[in-house]
Design brief:
alpha+beta, ten-stranded antiparallel β-sheet
Length: 2007
């Protein structure tokens, strides 16, 4: 039955979710100054008006005087009303239905809308004559009717949601939010009520029938407004006339807003279920169809075209579980709206898999689970299938635990908490495990058998006699168990001869067991009881049952030995005393003596008063139980709004019963800590100027504390608290006079206002402070700080299961850190706090700005932003002016004036570093029907080919090239940066508007990529354009340069209408708005009880999410509107249509300027005519393969005959005319020409219109050229020809060719009726009449130009308002908080700009490249053309443009190779300079790091400490001398004059000092037998093998060595290295371990002296002592150094001690000065250098592979890198160890603080840095490798290395020989030779002249002289001189055979560059200098005129096989 209820509940939940998804929830949103109730907003107006004026006041704001239709509304208004004020209500006398107005008519009161009063609270029944009603003051909010409606009273306005009453002359526009539409519910126009919209003229004075009526306008308004977002209803209203002309009409309208597009679907569904998705369109469609796209969330998209009835449903199935966002996007011609729903698809649950129980480390099967009472246990389960699973464990109907998981087929653990286990109780239980989700019916369940067991305790056993039980021969044992049943009992009986055991089960707490076998005599009975969790044992001694008395032994279960009863009693009494000592068990009389709290914990604290004795049952001690919780344990009840810690205190009697403490005469004080980080709102009031502050109360059940600190005490003043308005002497919520009574200033100046004092008001309160001054005094010089705290004290009422404040109040000692609660009972106590939000009162502007001097941070920052904005705007304006000049198309200067076929080139330079070029670039277009001339791409008015720029050029050719198949690019490698990275190139045919794209993305450079200056790029296909790499790069670059608001300021496209100044302004407005929203919500403390949502490493709360949403809603809409206005506003100057006309005019003007001149005064010669004819032949040769000569030289040697040239052209034209005639039928009509056959077989015989058009273009070109030739011939005349016949023949030839072309033009005119000679130059004109092409839209859409003023107005308004309020907030925050906010704001701002937004751009680019795959086309319709050609003269001037023919020919390969070699030399030279400079910087940083780690004061500190402790030290000291030195010099210096400081008081002793000794074992050496009787004992010198590491008693006594129980700090117990945290020490005689026997000296001189006396008296130092260490650490604050001191006294077993010391100074606290920051920066830069060198070595290793390790310099680099990283690791380790040791010292100041590990790490770090400096200095040798001298020295050492290695071996052998000999001879006499190492150092010093000859010669003159002399002769005079000779011989050979280095030429280039940099002339010693790579030309090029002879070879791959001539 219960499961059925659950299933029904789930079905109802699904149904509710479905219904909720299909209904729009209407909520009432009211302004802050209004209160919402019952679908209306109520405003309590304090202004005093008459009844009619009050109604008019409400009507102007869209409301009316308030109605009270029911009791709930009455109670609501009472909570917000002042009982001492009268308030107007919307009650007036009833008017008749025909609106008869007569003062004499008496009528009852009704509401203003005419509705009857179904609820009333009249004081008395309204008397006749009552015209209006109001709430009567001091009457319990009852109503009163009055006839005087002209008195001024406050009033209540009511604004009904969805209902509007509009008076005449008011706004008649209805509007809904974005994406919503209007729905008309009802309404009328006219007048039904005399009280609404009353006219200003007086009503009639006589009873007349008013001609008023009303009209139902619902249908009209519905037809006019339904489905619209904004509706203007004035015209609808006006159409009805005036229904009430005398009193005027009004419009009463009921409406609501609904979403224009609704989407409904199930919230939860199962996998593979049919899911119905429905959408409904409510918006009005003005025109066009509705197209909807439904995205189901699983990558399925469904398109819905014109759904029927604007509604549509789709059935869809989901194949896998998950959460999907179902979205629909509907688009019409005028709007686009989206809607979405979230749907969860779940997988149904199948059966359970394995179920396992875990209790501790034990596991059980589901059928036999065990749980330990009071402990957690877990149940692990998994399902076969299912998602979004909710697990429940229940016992009957009680829920024990639950868990919700996403995937059910993954094993999950449910934890049953200890309190739930206790609730189950001991015993076995049948539990049910349920698994359910929203799509599984019925739910799946499984049963578990769980037994809850207790730990076995309280075991008692007794052997019963025959008197206790029936007579039996068996041994009878009575067993009782306090808890732990069921258990197994093991009875073990042991007699004198045998033993016996038996196991029994015990399921109850008591039982009698009969042991089946009796053992005669006395037996020992042992009993063991156990279960799976614990076991106990008891022993029972007994004798044979021979007497009548029984022997009974009762022992505790934890006892394992047979202790006596007295000892047990004493142990119990000791435990009770210990409990009383720790306040666990206390006597009732001592409860009030001290507070009850947890030590060292920020937890609640209780202070009990003297509790009456009648509360306690007896005088016995009571048990105190205290509980502290961080979170509310009753979180399911959120009415208390509990935040912070929870505290509970209970008293328990000895028998375990609870003691109820309540109704005390004195209060219990509870101190509850408040959450950290709570905002403190403190206002500082200057009582001489202002005395007002604002306080916000968030809840009605909180207590308000006002804690005040006056500038002088006493300071009398009055406090007035007002609600929603400033209080007055008569109008206030609360008032008091300060100071109050109290013993402290805090009590006297604290005002506590409980909820009853605040009258339940919430919201804004105003506090006014008025000083109490004497007569005649107007102001006082005093100030007051007011801190407002809102809190509450509540306890958990167990009877009502709710939080209550009965019997509790807030104390005056409450602060922002702790809440003081005073209660008369004990329970769970919690503190509820509310943070007063940040409020800024604009009226206090002057007051806040008066504090500018104390807090100028935010104001100065905002002012600096405004100043920076103005400066940046100046720069942006200049940039906009420069961009205007860039957005033009450059007409190339080398365009032929006769060429009229135009191509637009868009050349894009890449964004890579160094992509721009200074070279001169040339391009050739390669088409299917011919190639263009090479053209030089340049513009004399602007720089071209800059990085990321797009340059536009207009290139002309004689006629169409057909479909372009490629382009050829090259440059001459000139200028300072010749390399060029060309991006994309677009070529557009302006006649046909066809576009070709070329994805170049390649370098044209001699030293980058493929090192080429000349490349041919094929045209890109559509597949190439839609490749991911191209789309991603294009989208990314476009978004960064134009779409991204911040980055586009610098990289804005010049063609964009969104100017740089506008972008800067939008950024400025956005920044200020962001600052305002950030500072508004800054410092709001998080709710500690709010759940934290965890997303990996990111955690956030719902409060933080809502703050982000609110900030976005405040900030982004306005800024998006500003950007949209600026981006979509059209420019003012010219419309786009006019601009396009200007573009066409410019093209025509360009054509006219390039057309051949017709002036008769032009100089014409025969050579000019021949050149023009030759040019015509040359242009024909480019399109066909013919035998026509191309150049003048090819017509023959000598003078060229003009008739011959014309004959060739004439033959060409006739030949093509003949082929054209053969290809066309003689009888073909013009109609057939217009409609050619399209079949493949007749395609060649019937050309298409496009082919005819191309032929027509070529024919027109030839015809114009021949006309020009004919004019030149007429101007030339026959006199210029060799013979008149030649002149006439030339004229006939020209006219004949013109006649042939005219015939062809006539045929083509059938297809195109336009005159060929009058055709426009632009191809767009010829296609306007073509019906097959789409009509082009001239102008793009956009806002009118004057919309830009709205954008600027919004920018100024948002910037000023945001900046103003930001400054107010900053002044209110204070300086420290303002700085904190500013830092937080700056970090988040740069994080957004540099990280988040770029990632967003990249993700969007990936999405568009993978999903959208749309190629963005650039629009050049509005780009202006510029013609820079200044000459429109003769043709000869036009040909001068191509005089520099070197630009039109690619560079030869030989010159490219020479330039490449010079470039490589330059690069190597610059690389060498860069390497040297980089290494200098590296060395500088390394030296800074090296010397920054050392302090020169360390030497003086060490020397001072060493000298201080060396006093009274002799070369040989006995044990007595050692004790004397320790008592005198050691202690006097350790404990100086100043306590805690050593010596003279400059160095602080860190921790305690200690003495440590190392000993050897007794009998550790063998004694010769002959002297054994004389020497009974022998002790060896120190060694690790002989060291004594035992533990002893005092005086080295062995008597208790085996059972020693001394502590680890005993000086007689050996402690290891790990325990002492020390390191081995090198002494003069041995290496000593870090362990030993340690004695700490204590904190002062007295304790240290006592310790030394104790050690001396007990002979701590004796004959077995080998080393004594005095160890301590000091800190000198003057030099900021720690010094770890080790004073060592060691002996070699001869009885004399020698002194040595080891001091290590280390800096653990970084210096606070600026040098520390400088060193830290150097360390960071040094590691960056290391990363840089790692990168270089990695590249080199990748290139050279194993050969890398054969280079010595590579290995040196590798060693430096490894040592650097090792030093970094040691540095980090030293820092961590230092922090650890300092922390240990702070926590254990009474112990020895060991800094040895830190000191060792510091020493290791210094050694590593020293070796780094050494190796880095050696590397300088390699950097000087290009110096000839250094190169020769290196070569010399390499040449002589084989000989040098042999001599070095000999030197080592001789050194070792003399060292061994000297050690053997003088090792026992002289200290310089006492060890082999010392002897070796002495012999080496002999070779350098450092030698003490006297000590050797004085000891053994003859032997010493022989040894020293032979060493000097053999080593110095022979071996070392031979070594030098070998090196000199190798150097001489190297000079003879030295080969100059290949890199010497690099040195010359480097010196040349350096000299040129400083203006010094460098004389090169080389005879054949290479070409200057920096010259303008860069190449010596061939001036051949025939360009195509070289370029056609590379372009042949793009030529077609069609050899026919098409004219």
């Amino acid at each position: 039955m219960w499961q059925t209820y659950v299933h029904m509940l789930i079905l109802m939940t699904l149904s509710c979710l479905f219904c909720a998804g299909n209904k729009t929830k209407l909520t009432v949103s009211c302004p802050e100054y209004q209160k919402a109730f019952g679908g209306s907003c109520f405003e309590f107006v304090g202004l005093q008006r008459t009844f009619s004026s009050a109604q008019a006041w409400c009507e102007r704001r869209g409301g009316h005087l308030a109605f009270i239709p029911d009791e709930e509304t009455q109670y609501f208004l009472q909570r917000h009303l002042d009982p001492k004020k009268d308030m107007w209500l919307g009650a007036a006398s009833s008017a008749s239905t025909n609106l008869q107005y007569s003062p004499a008519v008496e009528a009852s009161l009704s509401w203003l809308d005419g509705s009857h009063m179904t609820f009333s609270r009249w004081v008395s029944s309204p008397e006749p004559g009552g015209a209006c009603g109001h709430i009567l003051r001091d009457s319990g909010f009852q109503w009163q009717a009055t006839g005087d409606c002209t008195k001024n009273l406050p009033f209540i306005c009511q604004f009904e949601s969805g209902r509007s009453t509009i008076c005449a002359g008011r706004s008649t526009t209805l509007q809904c939010g974005s994406g919503q539409v209007l729905m008309i519910d009802g309404g009328f126009y006219g007048r039904k009520n005399i009280h609404y919209c009353r006219s200003t003229r007086p009503p009639p004075t006589t009873a007349t029938q008013l001609q008023c009526s009303w009209v139902d306008i619902v249908e009209s308004l519905t037809a006019h407004c339904r489905g619209r977002q904004v509706c203007h209803i004035a015209e609808v209203v006006d159409s009805f006339g005036e229904p009430c002309p005398q009193l005027g009409s009004y419009l009463s309208l009921d409406y609501h807003c609904e979403d224009a597009l609704t989407l409904s679907t199930l919230a939860v569904a199962a996998v593979l279920d049919d899911v119905t998705i429905s959408m409904k369109w409510l918006a009005h469609l003005s025109r066009g169809n509705l197209n909807c796209k439904l995205n189901t969330g699983n990558s399925d998209v469904i398109y819905l075209h014109s759904p029927e009835g604007l509604e549509s449903s789709v059935v869809h199935r989901y194949s896998h579980p998950g959460t999907f966002v179902v979205a629909v996007e509907c688009t019409s011609s005028d709007m686009q709206i989206t809607a979405q729903k979230i749907m969860t698809i779940q997988e149904p649950i199948r059966v359970f898999g394995d179920i396992t129980c875990y209790a501790g480390r034990l596991s059980f099967h589901a059928t036999n689970c065990k749980a330990l009472y009071g402990e957690t246990f877990q149940i692990q389960m998994e399902l076969k299938a299912g998602t979004h699973v909710t697990y429940r464990i229940q016992s009957d109907k009680v829920l024990l635990s639950g868990l919700s998981v996403v995937r059910g087929n993954v094993p999950q653990n449910i934890t049953v908490m200890p309190d739930v286990v206790k609730q189950l109780g001991p015993g076995c239980h049948q539990l049910t495990l349920h698994a359910s989700n929203m799509v599984t019916f019925p739910e799946v369940s499984a049963h578990l058998h769980v037994c809850v067991l207790e730990r076995v305790a309280g075991l008692q056993a007794s052997v019963l006699t025959q008197k206790d039980c029936l007579h039996s021969p068996d041994i009878t044992v009575g067993v009782s168990l306090e808890r732990g049943t069921p258990v197994l009992l093991l009875f073990s009986l042991t007699g004198s001869n045998n033993s016996f055991s038996e196991t029994r089960e015990m399921n109850t707490t008591r039982g009698i067991f009969h042991i089946g076998r009796q053992i005669p005599g006395s037996v020992q009975v042992k009993l063991r009881a156990w279960n799976v969790f614990s076991s106990v044992e008891v022993d029972v001694d007994m004798f044979a049952p021979r007497g009548k008395d029984s022997v009974k032994a009762v022992l505790d279960s934890t006892a394992n030995s047979s202790s006596s009863v007295g000892a047990l009693k004493a142990a119990v009494e000791k435990a009770v005393a210990e409990l009383q000592k720790h306040s666990l068990l206390v006597t009732p009389g001592s409860l009030h003596t001290k507070p009850i709290n947890f030590p060292n914990c920020s937890c609640p604290a209780f202070s009990l008063p003297v509790i009456p004795a009648n509360i306690f049952p007896s005088a016995e001690p009571v048990d105190i139980r205290m509980l502290s919780l961080d979170k509310n344990p009753f979180s399911w009840n959120d009415r208390g709004n509990i935040s912070g810690q929870i505290g509970a205190l209970s008293l328990t009697a000895k028998d375990g019963s609870s003691i109820n403490v309540e109704n005390l005469s004195e209060d219990v004080e509870i101190l509850l800590p408040r959450p950290p980080g709570e905002q403190v709102n403190t206002s500082f009031l200057d009582l001489g100027n202002f005395s007002t502050t604002v306080i916000d109360l968030p809840s009605a059940d909180t207590t308000l504390l006002l804690k005040m600190v006056p500038s002088n005490d006493p300071l009398p003043f009055k406090l007035f608290l007002g609600y929603m308005d400033y209080p007055t002497d008569t109008n206030y919520v609360a008032m008091t006079e300060m100071p109050h009574q109290g013993t402290t200033q805090e009590e006297r100046y604290t005002w506590v206002l409980e909820p009853k004092d605040l009258k339940g008001n919430t919201g804004v309160h105003y506090l006014v402070v008025r000083p109490i001054v004497g007569p005649g005094i107007k102001s006082i010089d005093a100030n007051l700080s007011v801190t407002s705290i809102t809190t509450a004290c509540k306890f958990w009422n167990e009877s009502t299961l709710d939080w209550s404040n009965h019997g509790c109040r807030v104390g005056v000692q409450t602060t922002h850190l702790v809440t003081q609660c005073l209660c008369n009972h004990l329970s769970f106590f919690g503190s509820s706090f509310f943070v007063t939000p940040n409020l800024v009162d604009p009226s206090r502007t002057a007051e806040l700005f008066a504090t500018f001097a104390e807090n100028p941070v935010v104001v100065c920052f905002v002012g600096a932003l405004f100043a920076a904005y103005l400066l940046v705007v100046v720069w942006a304006r200049r940039k906009d002016i420069q961009d205007v000049a860039k957005v033009k198309v450059t007409v190339l200067e080398d365009n032929d004036p006769m060429d009229e076929y135009r191509y637009l080139l868009s050349v894009s330079t890449g964004h890579r570093r160094g992509a721009s070029t200074s070279s001169q670039v040339t391009i050739t277009l390669l088409g299917a029907e011919g190639n263009s001339e090479p053209h030089h791409l340049t513009d004399p008015k602007k720089c071209v080919f800059e990085r990321g720029a797009v340059d536009l050029f207009l290139l002309t050719v004689p006629f169409s090239l057909g479909d372009l198949q490629g382009i050829r690019l090259w440059h001459n490698n000139s200028g300072s940066h010749p390399a060029w990275y060309v991006g994309n190139i677009m070529v557009q045919d302006l006649q046909t508007e066809q576009k070709w794209h070329f994805l170049c993305n390649s370098w044209l450079s001699i030293d980058i990529a493929d090192c080429s200056l000349d490349k041919v790029f094929p045209v890109s296909s559509e597949m190439d354009l839609k490749r991911f790499s191209n789309l991603f790069f294009m989208k990314t670059s476009r978004d960064f340069s134009d779409g991204h608001l911040w980055y586009s300021v610098i990289s804005r496209p010049p063609s964009s209408t969104f100017t740089c100044v506008q972008r800067i302004s939008c950024c400025f407005s956005l920044l200020l708005c962001t600052m305002l929203t950030s500072i508004m919500f800054y410092g709001i403390p998080a709710d500690p009880s709010e759940q934290t949502m965890d997303l990996g490493h990111f955690e956030f709360t719902w409060q933080q999410f809502m703050i982000g949403v609110q900030s976005s809603l405040i900030m982004f809409p306005v800024n998006i509107l500003i950007v949209s206005i600026f981006r979509n506003t059209r420019p003012r100057e010219t419309s786009c249509c006019k601009r396009k006309k200007e573009k066409l005019d410019a093209l025509e003007q360009t054509s006219v300027s390039q057309s051949p001149p017709t002036n008769a005064n032009v100089n014409v010669s025969l050579e000019t005519v021949i050149m023009d004819i030759t040019r015509i032949a040359h242009s024909l040769s480019k399109t066909v393969k013919s035998n026509i000569p191309c150049t003048e030289s090819e017509f023959g040697p000598g003078q060229v005959d003009i008739n011959a040239v014309l004959a060739v052209v004439e033959d060409f034209i006739k030949q093509n005319n003949k082929s054209s005639d053969n290809g066309q039928s003689k009888t073909q009509s013009c109609h057939n020409l217009v409609q050619p056959q399209l079949t493949e077989g007749s395609a060649s015989m019937h050309p298409t219109v496009e082919g005819i058009q191309k032929k027509s273009n070529k024919t027109q070109y030839l015809y114009r050229q021949l006309c020009h030739i004919d004019k030149e011939l007429s101007l030339l005349g026959p006199s210029s020809f060799p013979s008149p016949h030649s002149y006439s023949q030339a004229q006939q030839q020209v006219q004949g060719m013109m006649g042939l072309l005219e015939d062809q033009l006539f045929k083509f005119s059938c297809v195109n009726q336009d005159d060929p000679t009058q055709k426009k130059l632009s191809g767009t004109d010829s296609t306007d009449g073509d019906g097959g092409q789409k009509k082009r839209v001239c102008c793009h859409g956009g806002l009118p130009w004057w919309f830009v003023f709205f954008g600027w107005l919004l920018v100024i308004a948002t910037s000023v308002v945001a900046g103003y309020f930001t400054m107010l907030y900053g002044l209110k925050f204070g300086k420290e908080r303002s700085i904190s906010w500013l830092i937080s704001m700056t970090v988040s701002f740069f994080q957004s700009i540099l990280v988040i937004q770029p990632l967003k751009v990249l993700c969007l680019a990936v999405f568009f490249a993978l999903v959208i795959k749309k190629v963005d086309e650039d629009d050049y319709q509005n780009v202006a053309f510029t013609n820079e050609s200044s000459s429109t003269g003769d043709c000869q001037d036009q040909h001068t443009v191509r005089q520099d023919r070197s630009l039109y020919q690619p560079p030869p390969p030989a010159d490219i190779e020479r330039m490449r070699r010079n470039m490589i030399l330059e690069q190597k030279a610059f690389a060498l300079i860069r390497e040297i400079l980089t290494y200098m910087g590296f060395m500088w940083m390394l030296l800074l790091v090296a010397y920054g780690q050392r302090d020169p004061n360390a030497f003086f500190l060490n020397q001072h400490i060493r000298n201080s402790f060396r006093r009274n030290i002799s070369d040989s000291m006995s044990l007595g001398d050692v004790f004397t030195w320790a008592n005198t010099s050691l202690l006097s210096n350790l404990f100086g004059v100043y306590p805690g400081f050593i010596t003279d008081g400059n160095s602080k002793l860190v921790g305690l000092a200690r003495l440590r000794q190392l000993r050897v074992q007794k009998g550790s050496c063998q004694i010769a037998g002959s002297v054994l009787q004389f020497v009974p004992d022998c002790n060896t010198p120190y060694s690790w093998e002989a060291e004594d590491m035992g533990s002893y008693d005092r005086g080295w006594n062995h008597s208790v060595r085996d059972n020693i129980s001394t502590s680890t700090s005993s000086p007689w117990k050996y402690q290891t290295q790990a325990q002492l945290r020390a390191y081995p020490v090198w002494g003069k005689m041995a290496l000593y371990r870090a362990g030993g026997f340690v004695a700490e000296l204590g904190p002062d001189l007295q304790n240290a002296s006592s310790t030394l006396e104790y050690l001396f008296r007990n002979k701590w130092l004796d004959a077995y002592t080998r080393a004594i260490f005095a160890e301590f650490t000091v800190y000198n604050a003057n030099v900021n150094l720690f010094c770890i001191v080790t004073l060592l006294l060691e002996t070699a077993a001869v009885g004399a001690f020698q002194f040595s010391s080891e001091l290590q100074s280390v800096r653990l606290y970084q210096s606070p000065g600026g040098f520390h920051v400088f060193v830290m920066a150097a360390e960071v830069i040094y590691m960056l250098f290391i990363l840089y060198y790692m990168f270089l070595q990695g590249k080199l290793m990748k290139q050279q592979r194993w050969a890398y390790f054969r280079s010595t310099w590579n290995l040196l680099e590798l060693i430096i890198i490894l040592l650097s990283w090792s030093a970094m690791a040691i540095f980090i380790k030293r820092t961590l160890l230092g922090n650890r040791d300092i922390t240990f010292y702070h926590n254990h100041k009474d112990q020895f603080a060991s800094f040895y590990e830190t000191a060792t790490a510091d020493s290791t770090l210094q050694y590593l840095i020293a070796f780094l400096v050494l190796l880095a200095t050696v590397k300088l040798w390699h950097l000087l490798r290009l110096n000839p001298k250094m190169n020769m020295i290196s070569a010399t050492l390499q040449r002589a290395w084989s000989d040098i290695s042999g001599f070095l071996l000999i030197i080592v052998i001789m050194f070792m020989a003399y060292s061994v000999a000297c050690n053997m001879i003088y090792g026992w006499k002289l200290s310089s030779y006492r060890t082999l190492a010392n002897a070796l150092v002495t012999i080496i010093s002999l070779q350098t002249g450092i030698f003490n000859y006297g000590e050797v010669l004085n000891d053994t003159p003859l032997l010493g002289g022989l040894v020293v002399g032979s060493c000097v002769v053999f080593m110095t005079f022979v071996v070392l001189n031979l070594l030098l000779s070998v090196i000199l011989v190798a150097f001489n050979q190297e000079q003879i055979y030295h080969k100059p280095s290949d890199e010497e030429e690099i040195v010359d280039v480097m010196l040349k560059k350096i000299c040129s940099l400083f203006g010094i002339r460098y004389k090169n010693t080389k005879d054949a200098p290479g070409p200057d790579v920096n010259s303008d030309s860069g190449l010596t090029l061939n001036n051949s005129r025939n360009i195509l002879n070289n370029s056609s070879t590379d372009a042949n791959i793009f030529q077609t096989s069609d050899n026919s001539v098409n004219l």
